[in-house]
Amino acid sequence: QLQLAESGGGLVHPGGSLRLPCATSGFTSDLYAVAWFRQVPGKEREGVSCISFSEGRTEYADGVKGRFTISRDNGKNTVYLQMNSLEPEDTAVYYCAADEGHCSLWRRTYQFWGQGTQVTVSS
Fold first, then answer.
1. How confident is the model at residue 21, as a pLDDT?
2. 58-50-111 Cα angle (round to 5)
3. What is the pLDDT of residues 97-108, one digit of tens each?
4. Which of the residues 47, 53, 81, 115 could staple to 20 if both were Cys, CB 3.0 to 4.6 A apart?
């Protein structure tokens, strides 16, 4: 059973940065992918970024390319989402998700989800 726990959310000014850790446990091999999604009230949960453990391949949504970076710290079993040049449109609850398989920004790919962390970008 995979377990995921996000942290690091908060209030940040436009142009600022945040790093969101996703602490993971229960992985039995490297045949997994971890992704970050975000959701605002009334809208569908959208994929932001993902990483495939076996290949190290990453993928980003168009709106965050060049601003967000996903990475993995093997020793800490943690996946990070580094968010730079934040915009008010980035305000959302951010979730990490995981499952066996390859990196995908389609939410139905993932069976296991964290509880989410709120990110608010406002002046």
1. 98
2. 145
3. 999 988 999 999
4. 81
